[in-house]
């Protein structure tokens, strides 16, 4: 059962307040203040974990985010010289803040040192403000950087996750790969990246809830999870396939919309081909996780089985089947 201490509740509230201040501000200075409030609220949440590596991860995260915030401040004097140069520096700082390639180097080590729920916050909530800022800063020069960053993120997220045995690092490289699709959706319109981000948040939450409830941090622990619990196995199977974007699951829908926009509005065959190729690679290591928990079993392992600790981890992943109900909803509506 997930419980929040009073100080965690306070900092969670100020974290959300920082996001709301930043995305609703009409001034760059107020927006920067919202970013700093969000950062200074997340650091105590990271250090509240009993994990001995949480302080190291919190320090790494603070230094990287402080560098990004300092770059945004440093860009303001350049706006008097060249507005394009100022926009470029701010855009690079935002890419650093979300952990997009080639500025992704800090993301997997920070993820490895924090708990699962903090990792989920880092993968989803902490990206809202920088992504919304990037969607307002698209120009000709920043669009080229966005395309380059999206292609690199897709390749690094896919190839980097193939060699990992730690589940948090696998999810970190998965997040870098999904960041490539998010950058592609930002280049279209605001509605597109909102749809993709909400879908990614729901699907990744379903995966993290299973891994958190069973405290799975290493690939080998998948072999000793509750193999007799068929709903648990099916939940992990659905969640992993949905995260990989396999139809007809929920994770496929935003990718299909992005591909459709690529076909109708952009003439970027190399960009789309790279995204699709990386999606196949990520689906491979998702499949490896799902198959390990679904098929492998032995009598020795079955002796040490425990019941799942959270019913939410069993029910939430079945939201990935929601696209199957969409035709029924259309029939009811019409």
TrEMBL record:
Q: Which reaction does it catalyse?
A: a ubiquinone + NADH + 5 H(+)(in) = a ubiquinol + NAD(+) + 4 H(+)(out)
Where does the protein end up?
Mitochondrion inner membrane
Which residue ranges does the record assign to the NADH:quinone oxidoreductase/Mrp antiporter transmembrane domain? 25-282
Keywords attached to this Swiss-Prot or TrEMBL record, sorted alphabetically, are: Electron transport, Membrane, Mitochondrion, Mitochondrion inner membrane, NAD, Respiratory chain, Translocase, Transmembrane, Transmembrane helix, Transport, Ubiquinone
- What stretches pass through the bilayer? 9-31, 58-76, 88-107, 143-163, 194-211, 232-250, 270-291, 312-333
User: What is this enzyme's EC?
Assistant: 7.1.1.2
One Pfam family it belongs to: Proton_antipo_M
Could you tell me which InterPro entries the record lists for this protein?
Complex_I_Subunit_2 (IPR050175), NADH_UbQ_OxRdtase_chain2 (IPR003917), ND/Mrp_TM (IPR001750)
- Which GO cellular component term is one of those annotated? mitochondrial inner membrane
A GO molecular-function annotation: NADH dehydrogenase (ubiquinone) activity
Topology in the lipid bilayer is annotated as:
Multi-pass membrane protein
Q: Which GO terms describe its biological process?
A: mitochondrial electron transport, NADH to ubiquinone
Q: What does this protein do?
A: Core subunit of the mitochondrial membrane respiratory chain NADH dehydrogenase (Complex I) which catalyzes electron transfer from NADH through the respiratory chain, using ubiquinone as an electron acceptor. Essential for the catalytic activity and assembly of complex I.
Protein family membership: Belongs to the complex I subunit 2 family.
Q: What is this protein called?
A: NADH-ubiquinone oxidoreductase chain 2
Recite the lineage of the species.
Eukaryota, Metazoa, Ecdysozoa, Arthropoda, Crustacea
């Amino acid at each position: 059962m997930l419980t929040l201490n009073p100080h965690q509740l306070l900092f969670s509230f100020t974290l959300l307040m920082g996001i709301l201040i930043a995305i609703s501000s009409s001034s760059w200075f107020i927006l920067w203040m919202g970013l700093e409030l969000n950062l200074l609220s997340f650091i105590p949440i990271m250090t509240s974990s009993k994990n001995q590596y949480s302080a190291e991860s919190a320090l790494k995260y603070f230094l990287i985010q402080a560098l990004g915030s300092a770059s945004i401040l440093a860009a303001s004097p350049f706006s008097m010289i060249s507005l394009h140069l100022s926009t470029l520096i701010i855009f690079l700082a935002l890419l650093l803040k979300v952990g997009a390639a080639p500025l992704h180097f800090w993301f997997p080590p920070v993820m490895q040192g924090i708990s699962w729920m903090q990792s989920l916050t880092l993968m989803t909530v902490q990206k809202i403000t920088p992504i919304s800022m990037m969607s307002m800063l698209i120009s000709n020069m920043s669009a080229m950087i966005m395309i380059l960053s999206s292609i690199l993120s897709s390749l690094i997220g896919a190839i980097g996750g193939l060699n990992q045995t730690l589940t948090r690092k696998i999810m970190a490289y998965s997040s870098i790969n999904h960041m490539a699709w998010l950058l592609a959706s930002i280049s279209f319109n605001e509605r597109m990246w909102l749809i993709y981000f909400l879908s990614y948040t729901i699907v990744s939450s379903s995966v993290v809830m299973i891994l958190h409830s069973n405290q799975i941090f290493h690939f080998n622990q998948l072999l000793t999870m509750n193999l007799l619990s068929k709903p648990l196995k099916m939940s992990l199977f659905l969640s992993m396939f949905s995260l990989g974007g396999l139809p007809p699951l929920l994770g496929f829908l935003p990718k299909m919309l992005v591909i459709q926009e690529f076909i109708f509005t952009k003439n970027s065959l190399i960009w789309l081909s790279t995204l699709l190729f990386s999606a196949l690679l990520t689906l491979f290591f998702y499949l490896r996780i799902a198959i390990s928990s679904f098929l492998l079993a032995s009598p020795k392992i079955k002796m040490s089985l425990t019941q799942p600790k959270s019913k939410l981890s069993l029910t939430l992943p079945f939201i990935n089947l929601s696209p199957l109900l969409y035709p029924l909803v259309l029939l009811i509506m019409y």
